[in-house]
Amino acid sequence: MVRRAVLLALCLTAIALPAAAQLRGTTPSPDQNSVTAPAPVLLEGAARDQALALANQALNGLQTLQGHFVQTSPAGQATGSFYLQRPGKLRFEYDPPATMLIVSDGRVVAMRDRALRTTQRTPLNSTPLNLILRAQINLDRDARITRVVRQGDAILITAHDRTGQANGELTMQLDGPQLQLSSWDVVDATGARTHIALSGMTRPATLDRGLFRLEDILERPSNAPH
Question: Which residue segment(s) compose the domain that 88 sits in?
């Protein structure tokens, strides 16, 4: 269950969206946990479709991305670095004392626990990671979108796995005039919540191919130069 939650938490990684036109919708009940935050506005109809279209456009235009992340869950907090190259490739390196390394080579996702010296391999197309790493992305087609909300200058999109292979709910938050994805939350089948916050994102022209080689996952330390 923990490993499934980790894969679900990684399924929508840092994406910077282009500037968007103002979106309109209907206002749901106020969030009682927030006093100063702007009232959330539930997007429906054309406004909802516009928000999802902008997300699709950004995801399909993304080629390479790297940055840092902070993951907070009931088990505690972990930090690390990520590298993304579409289509299909992703690497999440957790800083010590965490011992996790996740690599997708375009076909298989490998999750390595260095402390236990175990590696779990899963076909990419059977994991939530395929939602953003596939060659052509359509969120409304590929996921079950249950809620799209505007709150101030942020857009929040809540999605479920359409296939039913990954239980849980994911909400991504995209902030600012450029609608850059700054964080996301995953609630798994047990109700446990995982929050991932992103920072220091850049779009390099190229990334080292070795970052995504599964045959190197056992031999290459996470702090090796790239």
Answer: 2-27+38-213
Question: Does a structural domain hold residue 121?
Answer: yes
Domain harbouring 137, CATH code? 2.50.20.10
pTM: 0.72
Least Cα distance to 132 among 63, 226, 74 occurs for 63
Plot region of 128 (φ>0 → left; ψ -120 to 50 → alpha; else → beta): alpha
Residuewise pLDDT in 10s, the chain (226 residues): 445 445 545 543 333 333 233 333 444 444 444 457 789 999 999 999 998 888 777 778 778 889 999 989 888 889 999 998 999 998 989 999 988 898 999 999 898 888 888 888 888 877 767 777 888 988 888 888 999 998 888 888 888 877 766 667 778 877 766 667 777 788 877 888 888 888 898 889 999 999 999 876 655 444 444 4
